[in-house]
Predict the 3D structure of the following.
Amino acid sequence: QVRLIESGGGLVQAGGSLRLSCVASGRTNNIWRMGWYRQTPGKEREFVSGIDWHDGRTIYIDPVKGRFTVSGDKAKNAVYLNMSTLKPEDTGVYYCAMASGGSTYNNWGQGTQVTVSS
């Protein structure tokens, strides 16, 4: 069983920055990817960014390119999301995700709230 614990959410003004952290515990011997999803008000949960655990390649959705940076620490089984130039439309619950044993994300954290005020 895998447990993902997120931290770092909060309230910030537009233009500000936040850093989300996620640490995985339990069965972490076969991580393929780690990343972040978010659910913004009125929308379905969407993929935001991810990092390949084998080659370090990263991927982002267009709305966050140039503003968000994902990184990973294999020694700590941790993934981070540095968010800058935040916009009100970035408001939502951010979920840490892990793909174990394959390329599909199949483990989820409980989520951390990010609120960006205008």
Observations:
- DSSP finds no helices and eleven strands in the chain.
- The first strand starts at residue 2 and ends at 7.
- The mean pLDDT is 96.
